[in-house]
Design a protein that fits this description.
Length: 141
Amino acid sequence: MHCPNCQVVLQPMDLGALGLVAVERCPRCGGTWFPPDQLALLGDSVWKHATAPAATEGDGASCPACGDRLRPLSPLDVRKMTVRRCSACDGCWIDRCELEHVAAMRDDEDSKVIVRNSVDGRPAHWSMLRWIGWRLRRCFE
């Protein structure tokens, strides 16, 4: 598979800490592809609190897995973060720069007492997309 941004061959990456083992990362731009079978491991809550940004149709990037068009979505609790989801195969692309939006919110969260979900360690009030972005960002630090 190739990166939808720069067409470089994607490299496998182990995200065992997230319960995901078959993600692929672009060695040039740092974007990450989440195959639909891996997102399914996290349950339907990945897309539960996400919505399409207002007045946007996407940038025309193609899905690295099936070639269909990637469409933008934002977690409701991190509106500045935009991920791209394939409506055909249900995979997800996250650009590395989008992780900065999650990182900017981390300082606020770290200063509070956070109630965490006992199953996956995610703060109870975070959307699954926000949590994935935060954990992915920590992998790159």
